[in-house]
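Model it.
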Amino acid sequence: MSDLMPTNIEAEEAILGGILIDPEAISRIAELLRPEFFAITAHQVIYRSALGLFLQGQPTDLMTVTTSLTDRNQLDQVGGLTKLAQLVDRTVSAVNIDQYAVLVEDKYQRRKLIEAGNNIVQLGYETATPLETVLDRAEQEIFSITQERPQQDLVSIGETLNQTFQDLENRNEGLTLPGIPCGFYDLDAMTGGFQRSDLIIVAARPAMGKCCTDESVILQSDGSLVTLEEIYQKRQAEFLTLGEDWQFHLTRPSAFIDDGIKPVFRVTTRLGRFIETTITHPFLTIKGWRQLAQIQAGDKIAVPRRMNVFGKETIRSCEVKLLAYLIGDGCLTRSAPKFTNGNTAILQDFAEAATSFGGLKLRFREQGKRAPEYYVMGDREGYTDSIKNFGYNLEIILLKRNFDSKKLALELEVPPRLVRSWVEGMAFPNQELFSRLCGLLRVDPEHLADEGMDVINTSHKNPLRHWLEELGLMGKNAHQKTVPEIVFKLQRSQLALFLNRLFSTDGWATLLTSGQSQLGYCSVSEGLARHVQHLLLRFGIIAAIKKRSVKYKNTRRPAWQIDITDAKSIKTFISEIGIFGKEVALFKVKEALENKEYQTNRDLIPVEAWEYLALAKGNESWASLAKRAGIKGHSNIHVGKRALSRERFLVLATALDNLWLKQLADSEVYWDEIVSIEPMGNKQVYDLTIPETHNFVANDICVHNTAFCTNIAHHIAAGLQKLPVAVFSLEMSKEQLVQRILSSEAKIESNRLRSGRISQNEWEPISTAIGNLSELPLFIDDTPNITVTEIRSKVRRLQAEQGGTLGLVLLDYLQLMEGSSDNRVQELSRITRSLKGLARELNVPIIALSQLSRGVEARTNKRPMMSDLRESGSIEQDADLVIMLYRDEYYNPDSPDRGIAEVIITKHRNGPTGIIKLLFDAQYTCFRNLASPKRS
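Modeled.
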């Protein structure tokens, strides 16, 4: 400590001496004085030890403090027993310990001010840092000094009664409520308004029932497919979301939600895609996001028309081919894999792939009129030669490394005789030992053994069978086959090769009698067919899947057929994938497409899109617009009668020079028709919170993912007193939150505001709403993972700027706040205590949103209870008012209380508990009073 720094060593010693001679003295300063307030390090250590004893309920006399320091090996650090004895000898009494504490704190604050000043001076020299950043950091330096807990003296009851009497007079005359009115009349009547210094918890289940079943499949950025349940368990993922530009981008979820078991419905589309969701789950229509309850068969929803996601992994080309061939025309239920096909070129290609695989022997079998077969067995002769080559290579490497067999056996922890059998070419290590051997000798596997030998050992004479077992394919019959996980993560070229050879088996290219071109694939395995449909989608190939009945021996059995009839999709398939062995048929299809003008009755923009064109063109006539766009027959373009092709929509959007319409024309979305919505009973469901876009892709369908308190904040800021409101949004950005408030104020759906689809007569209410909202003292902070300390600093600054009065502090939501403890329950308890202290310090009600646990889902009566608070800790004890939200239609779609929200007051420290009801307007995400306020 520099001699120039403000200190008061005498006061520090008097405090420590007073604590040692009077164990009760520390109780008078424990909440005021912290160890770092002491200038001398030894004094900090002594006080910290005494404070720890006090908090444990132990005395702080000389003997106990000495023992505590000795146990922590800190006695010598503070100057030994002599130092403690000197402190006792120099102190006469602890009577003035409170005043000494004030002196010590004063010097500490001055030292902090000097430190902050020095830091600010250094910031001034950082010319490379933007000025705004420097000023912000300088401000933080000063405000950080003011974050000490304020102290308040005892106040006589007489002073408090005077203020209480004045408040009673005002309320009796109807001038004020006891607290701050929230704008919901029945709630104000029950609570008397929100009381200043109250901590209010508002709790509800997350996601409001917008959930998908646990088996919903999601494509990850590495090409792999995982279920929604797996993502929930891992708590991390990166996948596709649809942006406002109508293109898919990668995103990461910010929250993972287990929403229990709920009634779900299967939505099936014309392309054969399906997903199971709750009745309240939104789907994207051309008119915006709509809940399933508002959708019916015949409506069109958004699904991806291409998902440009490919993996980075590679395997040998021979392995890709073998996988495709054996999945398509292979028998994998016998001891050795068998491949059957009548095409000579395909049989030869299969044989070459098997030979390249290594360690295999093929047995060809003619079957007369039936297609010939290949049996794939382990090549014992080749296997023996490979083992001898391995032994020779190993012996050479050991000689070069000066490594003998005994040392190698010791390092690998195997018997020396086993290593000798390797060197002599009599045996080969299993895969684990082989990998360890390569690592120990620092050699590449191919330098030690033949390619493919790392999967061979003495118990597996057929390396192909062993590999197929590892992939989970061996033993599966035709109905059980699916695409193994490794294929989904392959590079684009290898994925194309896989599909090429798979279509060689059970695929076709043909010209129908109608003149229409068609590519197809058929399988008795629904899982395999859906995997193929998905893989085609990655190339931008639109394929429909349908169930049909096929003849098999003397009976019929179900099969799943994939049809590709869209001309652009067929061209993409021919150019990027192809079909080996069926090139002639494919060429005829290609030739037919080249001689035919492209027309589609599938990939169309829904007829409702004419409305957006009408909004964009204004007063211009359709004939004039069509003429400017260069459309033939511009006098009659069937406005509002037919769905538009992308090409027609694009030329009209280009003529209007409307970016959003052009993006819609070139979107990565296909508008797929719903053919059925069927109840599927109760199932486990999950949801994800997606930042910014609030949607993700599940089962190759676009699906969507804090309105009550936002409404309260708006009411308080817009009330008669126009009290300042601070909103800390940890989940939504300030732009998203403002957009939601604007939607509620202007009575225009938020998704239309996001996309800019505004009609001419809606601009006036938008302008009026913006004018009204811009005058409100509503302040938003969207800092992620904010701490209570940061909130305190920002709110105190706002309070000073607004003349010392605040109406409300809103925090959305509690579980997203940053903490320092590994124990989340304890950390949340500390946060709620700090928030309660902040409410009292600033004399302002604080509303903190909280999630409810999934325990509510397990009960017959779904109305939440106090025990349902998630990670509750001391939330119940710290809160003055606990409000829980419940909507019966969330669980019962046919409820007579549709559109009604229950506000359940489960705890009220200063008044009654009970239930009030509000209207919930899902269209604008806002709550409204059921009736007008009662007047006397």
